[in-house]
Amino acid sequence: MQQLDVHTDLTVVGGGLAGICAAIGAARQGSTVALVQNRPVLGGNSSSEVRVWVCGATAHGVQHFARETGIMGELFVENQYRNPEGNPYYWDLVLLEAVRAEPRISLFLNTDVRTVDAADGVIRSVTGWQLGSEKEITFHSAAFADCSGDGLVGHLAGADYRTGREPRSMYGESWAPEVPDGNTLGSTILFYTKDTGAPARFVPPSFARDITATAIPDRRIIRTDLNGCAYWWIEWGGELDVVDDNERIRDELQAVVYGIWDYIKNSGHFDADNLTLEWIGSVPGKREYRRFLGDHVLTQHDVLEQMSFEDRVAFGGWSIDLHPVGGVYASERGSKHWHPDGSYHIPLRSLYSRNIANLWMAGRNISASHVAFGTTRVMATCALLGEAVGIAASVALRNGLAPRELARDRFELMRQALTRADASVLGVIDDDPANLALTASVSASSTLTRPAVEVSSGTLPLTTDIAMVVPVDPALHGLQLLVDASEDAVLTVELHDPLKPQNYLPLALIDSAEVSVTAGEKRWIDVPLEWRPDKPANAMVVLKQNPVIAVHTAASALPGMIFLAHRDPAPDEQWTEQFRAWKHILPRAGLCLRLGETSAYSPDKVIGGYSRPYGGPNLWSSEDLAWDPSPWIELTWPTPVEIAEIVVILDADLDEDLINLHHHRTPFESLPSLLNSYILEARQASADWRPIATITNNHHRTLRHFLPAPARLTDLRLRCLTTNGTPRAHVVSIRAHGASQSGG
Q: What is the Cα–Cα distance from 307 to 599, expressed in whole angstroms?
């Protein structure tokens, strides 16, 4: 047996998505990191050992333009490129390679941290046992991040925490119980099946549950085409201690799985003769245990009111999603959901311990009430929290700050670091003084100033209300629609304010119009709506139901525009606290329309501002490639600036809902909105342009170009060669850094 000591700036305990992103985030800031994982693979609940979907702010398409950027965004996009079929083992590889790509990370798999050396509110070291190699390893760091899910490190260090459900009186949360209790969300084990092409028999084990003696067949959805996380409701243990009783919970969950499979194979209710059980989990996927207490406890009110914290470092968008304590045996439905109107913010003050000076936390153990935890617990959101913690730990160490000092006194350092990392944070402009692009002027070969989509691909009758997002910058002075009418009619059109830049719902009526439509086909009609908001914003334009009118659809949509249809709840949706009445339609397509003159796609959008949709698309768009086949965008400085690194951020269509494992199949490997190939050129004064970088076969959103040596430049130009499918060139941001700010 060996006893080893490892010294790094930061030790991250837990190799799920929160821990992975914490480690990568800190390493990219220049810190050395020990990433300690007690399993043989990375990924936690998302790994091939457990196989839970990585859900996040998109909420399976309920929220819009909400997909995560930063490290989690990179993982989503890379997995889409490498693993569009959702193979669990390929997802493991995506995660492993992302960690191994960072030279400052030392990875320790199969290493279970069991003891913590802490005194006077400070952790000095943690010690773990590495299975298989029989090594006892002590990790010494100035800061520690507990991303373990269960929160063992913080517990052993003496960090304040809660388990179970707080009483309603504590935070005034309507979904909290009147009386506190120790109940939590339960754990889950999943299974996969496959068709063998020939009859396959199943003899159930003696311990398989007879599910016909339970409410399961009547209250849960069982189908032969379902696999993996489609059976998320196989949950149990919420009334127990999910850690202390983990073995009992695993045995019960496996008994339920074999009982469900026996029911599918042998009840005679299913066409399942050729199906066999391909995989069953042996590691329970835990949902909830300890929740540490930070300087702020996130609550139901913070989520639903979308509180705009000054120290916001991440966002979520999943519903408050709580489950009955009886789990799979409960007579109630398997979950209840309360959706916020859009994405909500999470503050840095919820990501460090209030009483352990050097303890950060990320994942399902952050400082949140049980009710608010119901939304922050999903893994893509946990990943954002991990990246924020990794960046924060590194920034704090570099500047000699305690976590509380960073959050309260020097948060501008964190904000700039998040922006430079292209992290997932809403409503934060790029005002980084190190970004030399902020002092440049911008021009382009063309700009989409009078956007229109005029080629029809079909029609959509107005049998229900249809809403569309229209960017307004600086004002809307009407629009035109292409319609058919079977008889003379009047179309009512409304303009609504979504109230927050991250919302995509018609929440406040601003204007309306009654438009006379004469009978006939393919008629352009004028819709006289007016709005001049205080700053660029999205308008929600609602076409009211009129079944004698049909609008013409198009095979593509303008950047930043989406289309929604109003619907009534189905019988199985009536129980939700807040039913989302607007459903996304026409994915990757739109309506035939003409907008007036707009600055929503102007070249200056690529410097400063926001680097994702937020009150508008926030990108430069060229005219259609048919009109401008070689589009370019150029930055010009009045005097030479010394540049060492250039960062290009492209349009990765953040409304596209990507996922790691089987849920839905997105019909492309590279996002069509991305540039496929481009040339980056530079010059000084009137000298000839010289190439800096040539990119081909691109599938990334953020590309960093390091010059061989810092160069004094007056002009920088990006020439688009091809896109991955979109009919225009889109660029979100161009940034330039000097030698002292590049890298990391």
A: 29
